[in-house]
Amino acid sequence: MHKTAVCLYGLTFVMLCCGCTSKERTVRTNENSNLTVNTKNVSTKSAPPSSVAESLAGLKPQDNPPGASAVEPLRILTWNVESEGNDPEVISEQLQEFEGYHIFALTEVLKYNVRRYSDAIGHGEDTQYRFVSSQTGRTDRLEIVFDSNRLDLIECSELFLVDDTKLNDWRHRSPLVARLRDKPTSTEFLLMVNHLARGDEALRTEQAGGLRKWAAKQSLPVIGIGDFNFDFEFSTEKGNAAFDAFLQDDTWKWIRPPQWIDTNWSDRDEDGKDDYPGSMLDFAFVAGEAKNWDAQCNVLVRSRDFPDTRYTSDHRPVELIITIP
After folding, report:
1. Considering Cα of 2, then 37, then 78, then 284, what sign does the dihedral take?
2. Whole-number Å distance between alpha carbons of 222 and 191
3. 186-237: per-residue pLDDT in tens?
4. What is the pLDDT of residues 124-139, one digit of tens each?
5. CB within 10 Å: which end of the chain, N or C, has fewer?
């Protein structure tokens, strides 16, 4: 039993951002896993080709949620970039075009693209971005890239076990958690990004129940975001068994987008049509005190994002705009 991975506060690793160097660090949380933390200033990249720039023009965060305070809302973007099913150069060019976000929570990141994507996000000269990535999931990783001018990273972990509930069977990805401090408000919160098991329904449902238990144990506000594989259908407004297990007891609050928009393209029979139209896999949730914060979620539709090609991701990005009081 990996007790250090049960709860963020049980970690053996603590990193204070003010003490970071410009070197990459591999941080061990237990004997079977480690996290890669990078605190190097990211490189400046050239603008993408005009075709890409035009297709992504104007992709800035939406207006602030109603009731927002004078403090700029925290802007978070999550995106499943489809590991080996894309051209990493195209994904890097697209990441460069997203402006104004303080956190990028990426899923399905091939391990050799972790640095590449963080460099693409930090192409601006005025903002220093840092990242932390998971080590489970074999070559398919989770990555959090954050603006260190807005946020401090206090500690991070991968979750493996909550009480007697498995969050990973060592063949999948463990949820990645970062404890962050918002500098303008001095508020600490937990950001959990995950990609629950796609092909194992029993494990996915167990993971969802385990994340509900984990969130209920936390004393800090919690934001949960990523590809949950909940198979939520717009026509019935119902998800799968994992969706029900996750939302049981109202521990988590779902920040619903104002419009139902497909977040995933799947065309296994290659007939040029989406196999699962009118459905959603990517979500944003909050728990604890964060349930009282003003929040808005939007699925971002870009020119020529669907149908998916071998160069692009088969998911749409999802943004969460949340105001920390």
Report:
1. positive
2. 6
3. 999 999 999 999 989 999 999 999 999 999 999 999 999 999 999 999 999 9
4. 555 689 999 999 988 8
5. N
